[in-house]
């Protein structure tokens, strides 16, 4: 009997974009169980708290993915080294999405460092679908903060949360 293949898709997801959701959907096809790890990373000055981001990611997965895929996906916050988190959930695969060559250079360095920490965990890189290659959470926040329409880049519910958060910030 084959051991269950557990993958992790880590990120800050501040906010989760359509590109992230696409990677989650595709990653769920290549592992038996996928843990979407929401990094606390307060150093990045997130717009949403960790608990809010976990809730938002769960909401998007529940609403946008079919039941079979949802049943194999778990969303968890973490604030430890990625490799330690991977070990704690029994992961054998780390999934990362790539949009451009600059993403590859950064991810390649991270992969090299993490391989020194644990040689048993493999990396799988998924290229962003062409319609999502230009989307980044940072750009979505910038557009939203300036009153632009972000509905093409995030789910309807995430767009509503962004609008509300930026209204609160201005008040």
Write the layout of secondary structure elements.
Blueprint: E1 6-11, H1 18-27, E2 33-39, H2 50-64, H3 67-70, E3 73-78, H4 82-88, E4 93-98, H5 101-117, E5 122-127, H6 137-145, H7 156-170
Parallel strand pairs: 1-2, 1-4, 2-3, 4-5
Keywords:
single chain, alpha/beta, 5-stranded parallel beta sheet, globular
Major sheet details: 5 strands, parallel
- Assign an overall shape: globular
Mean pLDDT: 91
**Which strand-content bin applies to the residues?**
15-25%
SS-derived structural category? alpha/beta
Output the helix-strand order: EHEHHEHEHEHH
Range of helix content = 40-55%
What value does the Rg take, in angstroms? Answer: 16 Å
Which segments are poorly predicted (pLDDT under 50) over 5 or more consecutive residues?
none
Q: How many distinct beta strands? A: 5
Arrangement of strands in the largest sheet: 3-2-1-4-5
Distance between the termini: 58 Å
**Separate helix tally:** 7
Structure description:
The protein has 171 residues and is α/β, with parallel strands linked by helices. The chain has seven helices and five strands; from the N terminus they run βαβααβαβαβαα. The protein has helices at 18-27, 50-64, 67-70, 82-88, 101-117, 137-145, 156-170, and strands spanning 6-11, 33-39, 73-78, 93-98, 122-127. It has a five-stranded parallel sheet, sandwiched between helices. The longest helix has 17 residues, at 101-117. The protein is globular. The model has no long low-confidence stretch (mean pLDDT 91).
